[in-house]
User: What shape does this take?
Amino acid sequence: MSNEAATAQAAQAAEAAPAPEPLPHGLGASLPPADARAKTEGTFPYAADLWAEGLLWAAVLRSPHPHARIVSIDTSHAREMPGVRAVVTHEDVPGSPLHGRGKADRPVFASEVVRHHGEPIAAVAADHPDTARMAAAAVIVEYEVLDPVTDPEQAFEAEPLHPDGNLIRHIPLRHGDPEAAGEIVVEGLYRIGRQDPAPIGAEAGLAVPRPDGGVELYLASTDPHADRDTAAAAFGLEPERVKVVVTGVPGATADREDQSFQLPLGLLALRTGCPVKLAATREESFLGHTHRHPTLLRYRHHADAEGRLVKVEAQILLDAGAYADTSADALAAAVAFACGPYVVPNAFIEGWAVRTNNPPSGHVRGEGAMQVCAAYEAQMDKIAKKLGIDPAEVRLRNAMATGDVLPTGQTVTCPAPVAELLQAVRDFPLPPLPKDTPEEEWLLPGGPEGAGEPGAVRRGVGYGVGMVHMLGAEGADEVSTATVKVHDGVATVLCAAVETGQGFTTLARQIVQETLGIDEVHVAPVDTDQPPAGAGCRGRHTWVSGGAVERAAKMVRTQLLQPLAHKFGMSTELLQITDGKITSYDGVLSTTVTEALDGKELWATAQCRPHPTEPLNEAGQGDAFVGMSFCAIRAVVDVDIEIGSVRVVELAVAQDVGRILNPAQLAARIEAGVTQGVGIALTENLRTPRGLIRHPDLTGYALPTALDAPDIRIVRLVEERDVVAPFGAKAVSAVPVVTSPAAIASAVRAATGRPVNRLPIRPQAAVVTERS
Assistant: This one.
């Protein structure tokens, strides 16, 4: 065959071949993350991978006691070790000796007293990581061991553990008639254990001194500007002389960054004049960062003969551990949502957050809301059982809707399709029953090697309905700034919103694609030279940072379209951009975005700030929240009632999402949240007998694996847009975490008839004996 014939045949084949599938584009498409390939191949740079010329290594000495008075600290042996370049203690902190996310009450290094197991005492910089660790161990600390206060109920009467006292916050919520009473009353006492965020990637950082006497911190920070300000205060420097550069964040279910190592890291770099790196071991991570608040809850529900709620009374006690951190915020969420997404005309809630000598508690996804959800849903099951009503039906009779009023007095103005969500999961077909055949023994609780017998397995179906607030609360100033630049047909987004796995960088690309019709969009790395965007939690960046990107992109769009509109004598509102083409409403104008740009460089900066909120008053009343999101989950479990093993068979999820911006990403976030809830319900419990963290590793702390993940069925996503939110979208990842533990506990109650009043569910709580 001649070359000409072969070329002609190839051309014919190309014409006959189907056109390639267009790449996902803009809002509503499942645009893949830009860093997906690098993360899959293991080439994505995290903080633990960083290196610098002349690098030193750091190690932190932590207290082995939960409560002790420091008699003396002797660093001489550590300083004399070969290879040691610096040892710092509380005496070497040039600036503020205290720090903290919500309240500055936590010392950089303990000086007179240690208040929790793992509190930093000293830090060392050396030329080798092993040398640094040995030198830290060589620091001699003489302690006078004190009795720890580990029971939060004892904290009210105990001697003050902190100069600020033991009580961090008390919220007495009063709503309605205190004399109101129902025809039936159910009561319960509930306990929620301590969970750890357990980020899979190592917590690490690099500090590099600057010629101007400042320092640059390379961290997996989720709130770089707050971390910069905290560091600057501790280092005695102006904020402009401290720069935080965000490295890859290897998973974050909360504000994961542990300031008890990043502050010593910067101090060591300033002291030595050399770059200093620290990569925390898993034990150090458990000892250093904050955990979910263990909570004690007492409830009394009043209902009428039809199961409609009349009054809810509750006492909620949060164990904040040694320091305040974000406990005041967690308590506000717990008290405000103590009745759940139900209409409650009368509510009287007492909430406290107290200091103990337990490890510090802080922001973990769904804080406050998760603990109360487990309790109020248990109460709803008790009402259903007492009245002989289907558990889903009693929830439907009380379901909240838009226009209803929270116990805080705030009207729910956002979409609240609680009944619709609950009906969706209730009506979804149940999974088939397991068969008693050897080849399907793996379907039984405990797996094929389990000790149980098929005849002892009982199936249970339960429900959970949860709610969370989005953004900050009680007057928090939520603001974010973004810049969009366009040059040579490529758009760049500059925004200090950190990509923690929630998908912000992908969303930013989609927003610019949708608004400007430009396919190639890059999101710049984050550092504190950019304007602040706030913390990456509670759906903030989807709402606030995404809103800022949208506004900046629309301003660039106007710059792009104005010359064309002027030329054709029309308004820019009469022009639209679709698939990279600019067209007018009447079809007279038709050109491409590339032609319209014609080598121009366009840019704009914009801010997004949601409407203000207010603090709860002395009666727990106030418009404290910007918006809320809701979720309903039906859990199906199999329980071996002889040995207490639980297998979660299926979780059916319905959720209001406002608007689906990226279907694949949204589904992944919901599934991840539900799976995290499985761990909270069944396995995750950081044990701290007498304040000591027992087994601070992933052997002693049992995370759910892929083998523990149940079938997750997303049966309904309600797209009712929140008119005050950019794009109308809602946060999606926290509310499944809040709801799934309550649903699983409900299903175990249905299978066993046992009360199940503690999370995680212990095997003995699921065992059925003749007496029980």
